[in-house]
Design goal:
single chain, 69 residues, globular, mainly alpha, 434 Repressor (Amino-terminal Domain)
């Protein structure tokens, strides 16, 4: 699970903008944002760089996922 959608919302950034910056299709990016698919480690680092945040800020701890949070 990731927090990409939360970070985009917090920063007021549209998914389409991030997709363009990544050079990925909107559909692929949308699957990341909605946790239907997960970005590769390389893409995760690129997303963090584009959003000017630490990579760990995009991740949800497994304990939180397992606890249903």
């Amino acid at each position: 699970m990731n927090r990409i959608k939360d970070v985009l919302d917090d920063k007021g950034i549209k998914q389409i903008w991030l997709a363009q910056k990544l050079g990925k299709s909107y559909n692929i990016k949308n699957s990341y944002v909605n946790n239907r698919g997960q970005p590769s480690i390389e893409d995760l680092y690129k997303i963090a760089e584009i959003l000017d945040i630490e990579t760990k800020e995009l991740l949800v701890e497994m304990k939180a996922v397992n606890d249903g949070k």
